[in-house]
Amino acid sequence: MTQVYMRATYRDAPVEIMAGWAPMESQVFVKVALLDDEGEWREDIEPVLDVWKEIDVRPTEITVAAPLAEEIRFMLLPLKIDVPDMMLGEIAAHIVLDLGNVRVRYTQDGTRTVISGGVPGYDPECVE
E strands within the chain? Predict the structure, then answer.
């Protein structure tokens, strides 16, 4: 599963967005969870948002995958949370490449940090 994270604010509360691609289920997803004082997900409260969308046929071209990743932006629209284009582009690329086991964190300005996994040939810390 590709998981791309970003911290944001929702109704003056800190939240973390987790969005990505689940190849085994063939779904794009987005979750928004409230964070506690230590910056961890609050397990005692349901996520603010938890939406999964199944894709019948995984696209193998970026021009088809990009609109699917862009839907994550629309899922977040009611919460007034925006995500960097780079974050959505990475999810689209992972759909096309059918990558799993990649975890990346973005900041709101688009700075990217690999948590684990990575893309061979793109991420220096990725071991092929």
Answer: 2-10, 13-22, 27-34, 49-54, 102-106, 112-116
Element (H, E) at 88: helix 85-97
Q: For residue 124, is it within any domain?
A: no
Is 122 within the bounds of a domain? no
Total residues belonging to the chain = 128
Domain count, the chain: 1
Report the C-alpha gap between 108 and 98 in whole angstroms.
25
| pLDDT digit string, tens, across residues 24-59 | 888 899 999 999 999 899 988 899 999 999 988 888
* 48/16 Cα distance (integer angstroms): 10
Tokens matching residue 11 = 């109704």
State the pTM of this model: 0.83
In terms of residue numbers, what domain contains 14?
2-116
Calculate mean pLDDT across residues 61-71. Answer: 87
Q: Using the 8-state DSSP alphabet, how is residue 41 labeled?
A: B
Who's near 107: CB < 8 A, 6+ residues apart? 6, 7
Amino acid identity of 87?
A: M
Contact, 65 vs 59, CB < 8 A? yes
